[in-house]
Amino acid sequence: PYVKIYLMLQNKRLEKKKTTIKMKTLNPYYNESFSFDVTPEKMQVIIGGNATGAALKQWTDMLATPRRSVAQWHTLMPFNDD
Asked: I want to staple 22 with a disulfide (CB 3.0 to 4.6 A). Which of 12, 28, 44, 58 is the partner?
């Protein structure tokens, strides 16, 4: 299995990434990182102040240290194509 990761804005897919394929396991562990280039204008909409929980903490950490990388684990959620 593998995981597809979408960067979305207002139900529009801006970018897609994919993990490596993990063979012969039903419970794969992915220790991978992904980077997306996002303009500052779009960043507020994607992960900005409307976020909650861990995503909000990541947002405030990024604002506090604008030139440093901020790592954050996020729970995978199913994609709803509404």
From this structure: 28
